[in-house]
Amino acid sequence: MIVLVVEYRITDREGRVLGNSKFQGPMKIRIGTGEVWPELEERIKDMKVDEEREFWITVPYDENKIKRVPASSLPPDLLEGEEFTFQTPAGQWNGRLLRREGEFAVIDLNPPGAGEKIHYWIRVIYREEI
Question: How far, in Å, CA of 80 to CA of 101, rounded?
Answer without folding.
Answer: 11
